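Before the break, one more example. Copy the sequence into your notebook; we will annotate it together after we see the structure.
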Amino acid sequence: MTVQAWTTLFVVLTFGLYTAIAWWTRASSTREFYVAGKGVSPLANGMATAADWMSAASFISMAGIIAFAGYGGSVYLMGWTGGYVLLAVLLAPFLRKFGKFTVPDFVGDRYESNTVRFLAVVCALFVSFTYVAGQMRGVGVVFGRFLEVPVETGVLVGMAIVLFYAVLGGMKGITYTQVAQYCVLIFAFMVPAIFLSLRFSGLPIPQLGFGWGGEEASVLAKLEGLDRELGFTPYTEQGGGNVLNLFAITLALMVGTAGLPHVIVRFFTVPKVRDARTSALWALLFIAFLYTTAPAIAVFARYNLMESVRDASWSVSAETNDDPSVKPLPEWVRSWEDIGLIAWVDKDGDGAVDYAPGAAFVGKPSFAPDEARGDHGERVLVNEPTEAKNELYVDRDIMVLANPEISGLPNWVVALVAAGGLAAALSTAAGLLLVVSTSISHDLLKRGLLPNISEKGELRAARIAIVGAVVVAGWLGIDPPGFVAEVVAFAFGLAASTFFPVIVLGIFSTRMNKQGAAAGMITGLLFTASAIVWFRFLHPELDTAEHWWFGIGPKGIGSVGMLLNFVVSVAVGACFPAPSASTQDMVRAIRVPKGAGAAASH
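Here is what the structure looks like once it is written out:
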């Protein structure tokens, strides 16, 4: 069977499974729609949390970023895993004990203010829409390549699918769908990794296989040699760069994780506070399988790409070249080129594609219409090539998906990876869209503008909100401001600068009041969003280290926003009276372990 046939089969089977689960577990009440009736077991919740957490950024883009960034790409591994530990230990059990449906619900009640609740809703929308743009981009990349449609069409297909089971099942349906999606995505991620680890080292453990060569040099050592041969900085020496910026990105990813509303809400779905801790432990174990494998995938993918380019002597005109060592461009190159994620140009006119350091083109390649082809069948580029010797552009987001093809693995493995990428992207997209929905229907309408709305009306409003959210998410996914992992990093920065301080102070400070919380959130949001918009949208030419604010780029600026939030919150809060005695008693109560049993009965 062809790759497309296998992919179609896997997509139909897995999406049929997701749809059946969503129908079987469809929500019939707001409690089931928002928090799955608070009846999810710790094991199932841990698996669903892992799927919710491991988005397209984790599955598709993270290994690709590490493959190109080398050592510097480790910030994603450290930030995201460390942040989850921070969330599990510092916040999740206390928020579950508080017993609300959403993060804005906690913020509004803790600070005794609908104004602060509204600000939390605004922040949740900013974070969720930024995050979901990356997921829809991931969906578009997968569908675009393996169903042979444009990325934009792939996004539209993904929108329709996620809309169905998110509207139907709410949190209850999404939870059990995510359990299935975790099984699909982790199997799809591990299978090619094990294949390649066995090929390169004879070990079936990728975490060891990429650094183990037995009697021969390891694949990591071979990659180092290839880097030097082709003029690149050796893989393990890349990415040192601006240490302050690396630290800021890592910190933003960590505290942003602990402030992500779609992850936090997962801990509201279990019956007891103790179950929140247990499910956090399960989730960390399930997450570790993928995160410890990502560096191996990165090394395998980069080595396979560079070895393929070097050995094949890719020719742009092999049919007219008499040199038998010169081969035509591989079919997988043509396939990814057709959807705009690989581009090449013969700068020196030697009839071959050369891979070397430096950017091949000015910015990200921009293609003319599909029917416009060059003399050798290449996609004609609108933007100009750079002076660098490099003639090949490879989008980071394709490395995990293209790796099985580059490596010559069986077609069913190629298709399996595609199904896993879709599972990762759609599981997180569904969780994010539910946050948008509940923020509007529960926090904005039920707890604000329409307090007398019926449960049926609230459920209807939640489903209508998801429809609107899917449309906006699809639009953002068609034209995102960067690679999947980059877009997600922006969302983490926004979460770090808005939710993390207000939640931490809300749990651990009886003195913090609504004035301080409001001022802090506004400051963090405006500062961080302004920096991202300034460098990524208004002045992308200034997105370099010498122009960054405080020497920190857009992906790490959320750390500064978080610090500003803390400072402003404490300073403004000190100028106003403390919260009521009942609120202070409630803050103390949610931190008392012996009260967990009573709280769990709510």
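The first helix runs from residue 3 to 24. The chain has 23 helices and four strands. Try to locate both features in your own notes.
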